[in-house]
Structures are given as C-alpha cells and as structure tokens.
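Moderator note: this is an archived Q&A kept for reference. The question asked for a predicted structure of one protein chain; the sequence and the answer are reproduced below.
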Amino acid sequence: MSVSSKKALLIAAFALLFQGIMSAQYKDGQAPAEEKPAVLTLEDALKVALSENVSVKVADKEITRAQYAKKGSYAALFPSIDGSASYQRTIKKQVMYMDGGGFDMSSMIGDALLGYLMPLYAQHPGVMPPVPEKPDPSEETSSSNEGFSVGRWNTWSTGVSASMPIVNFQLWESLKISGQDVELAVEKARASRLEMVTQVKQAFFAVLLAKESRSVFQEVFENAVKNFEKTEMRYKAQKASELDYARAKSTVQNAIPNLYNAESQVALALWQLKAVMGVDLDENIDVAGALADYSTRMLADIHENDDFTLDGNSNIRQLAIQLEELAGAVRMQKYATLPSLAVSFSYMMNAMANDFKFSTYQWSPYSFVGLSLQIPIFAGGRRHNAIRQAQVQYDEVYLQKANAERQLQIAIRQYLNQMETSMKTVESAESAVETAEKAYGIAEMSYQVGRSTITELNDAQLALTQARLGVSQAIYNFIVAKANLEQTLGADFTE
C-alpha cells in the first residue's frame, strides 16, 4: 500500500469517526449542515440560566408563597365577620312543672281579674262579686304532677357575628415572624441563584477544558500521522527499521481513541452546560473564549478577594434570620402569660313555629356588643415549658451558626490555597511547555536525519502533551476554586 493511500485511509477513518461523534448531539443523528451553533460567553450563559433555570423559578415561587402567607397573617388585625343560619326540629317538647306553694297561677290570674273589675263594681254598689278566699299560708301546699309542654316544633335562627382583637401581644409578635419568613424566603432564593451561578461557571469552564484537551489530542493525532508518513518513506528506503515502522503505526492507532474520548468529553460538557442553564439539550450552542484568557488575571483575581468577611454568605444570613425568628418565638411564648382584650358583636334573628308558612313567621331580633378580657392564670406549667423549648431551639441555631462560620472560614482558606497553588502550577507548566516544545522540535529534526528513533520522538510528544494538558488543568482548577470562593463570599452575579 502506498503512502498516499495509507494517508487517505487514515483521514477518511478519522472523518467518519469525527462525524459520528458530532452527530451524537442530535436526535436524528445528523446535524444540519447550514446551522451554526450559537456562541455564548460566560455572561450570556449566566443571563440565560437566571431566567430559565428551574431552581431559580422554584425559589421565586417560594418568595411569592411567603408574601401571601404574610398578608394572610395581617388579616388577623382586622375584624372577623361570619354569617350563620340554623334550623332545629323538635322531636319531643320539654315539659315544665309548677309547685302550688311556690307559684300559684290561678291566684295570680284571680288577683289581676279582681283588680280590673273592682272599679266597675264601684259604680254599681248593689252588685258586689264574692271575694275569693285566700289560702291559709299555714296550710301545707301540695305539688302538681301535671306539667305543660314548652316551645314549638320548628326553630329558625340566622344572623352575623364579628370579633376583633384590641390588645394581643402574641398576635403582634407573630406578625413580625411572618415578615421574617418573607426575608428568609428571599435569602433562600438568593442562595439558589448563587449556587446556580457557580454551577454554570463550572460547566462553562468544563467545556473550555474539554475543548483544550481536544485541541491537544488533535495535534497529537496530526503529528502521529505526519511521523508515520515519514517513517514509512524511510522504511521503504530502508533507512528505518521495521520496529520504528510498527511503533509509528501503533502511535497513530493509539491517538484515535484519545481523540474520540476528547470529542465525547466536549459533547458531555456541553450537555451539562445546557442542563444547568435550563435550555433544551438539542440546542446547538458553543462557548466562546479559552482557558488561556483567564490565566492573565490570576494575580489580580486573588487581590480582588481581599475582603473575606462572611457578611454576604447566604447560609450565615439564613441562620441569622432564623435566630431572629426564634428570638421572636421566645418573646411570643412569654407574651402568652399577658392578658388579651377583644371586642365582639352579634346580631341574630329567631323564629319559632309549628308549620312551614314562612310568610307568617314572627322573627325576633337579638343583638349584643361586648368586650372580652382574658387573663391567663394557671395552665399546669405548659406556658413555662413552651418558653424553655423555644429558648433551647434558639440556642441550637446559635451554635449551628457559630460552627458554620468556622467551617466557612476553613473553606475560604482552602479555596485561596487552591488558587495560589494553581497559579504557581500554571507558571511551572508554561515553562514546561516551552521546554517540551523545544525538546520535541529537536527530537523531530534528529529523527528526520536519523540520529534518534521513533521512541525518542514519541517520548518528546508525550512530554509535550502532558505539559499542555497540565497548563489547561491548572487554569481550570484556579477558576473553579475562584467560583467556589465567590459563592462562599456571596458575590452576586448581578452585582
């Protein structure tokens, strides 16, 4: 097989492989030839994620929910008005009994009738009614065993009632806690945004790292093909051994899987970026820039973060709000021992009848307005234990906040150490790249003139590859640590 045929075969194989890798990003396996990917900068990716990310949308919904809950709690300050209506059907009427000595109905009726007729008999002296004899008080009266039914068969009632607190310390404190719930929801939403920004940054940088690796392995593959062609020519001219020819050929074959893996890593990194951005995975996008763009600002980025206070940390802010809420809960439990005052009003209409002729019903109104004073006296120690329980919860969160501050201080120092280490590694790796490039050039020239073997050339290529990948990895470690540090310090993207 000639040199040109072997070269054409390798290029065709690589083209088919590259086409298969790139088509994996599409459902139908074929990318539109005329469609160009939308190139996004880091700022563009963050803006899209802030509007499309699911966790951000859920956090915004939680803020709205907390605001509605706050408005609902303020409704307790306004009068509560309720309407009511009831109907009762009597199954058996109540029976009442009267004792003669205690309550003589006939005597009362007789006295009333006599008082009404006496003026009339005074005008006719000749006609005088007999005066009824009054019973002797000394005589023992007897009780009657006969009673009479009371009430009617149907009882209807309707009306409205209203009540409103005037003095209630517990209620006022609970309204403050409801307002703090809204603040906590807002801070949790901010935490979701900070986490989302960090995830987008890491995914964006991962794409850049994958593209850098792909470029390195692409160059390795091209150098392997070029060296194979030269080795084959020398082998045919009997200036290279069969061992060199076999090693050059195996170098090309080994470079293909590495390139395949590099292409797969680019596709996976892009899918991860789309996922955290909240866009469809079939969107054809690409990222702008390179990792080398961030290496020039390493020293400045470290000095920009000289203020390492935790005032902007979202976890610390959330714990601080929770402490305020628990302090309010302690006060609210203490206020349970104070009196409360409320005003109430009621207006009712009642009707009783033995039939269902509503037009003939006689409705009797009944209304009142009054004040209700409630003074807690004794509850078996329930209120005192509730105060202790709220105080213990406050102490628990206070300890958690102190421990969180210590852990975050450790995390800040760790990220700074990673950034400094990565910056030093980049400087060393860049020097290694320069040396490796020079060594590879010398090895390539020596191989062309027959002073070195293909093994030495491959060793020089491997050293150059590792040096270039080391630079990219060091820069990636730096910017990822910087992103984590910014999240810990609470640096908002919008700020």
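Archived answer notes: The longest strand covers residues 154-167.
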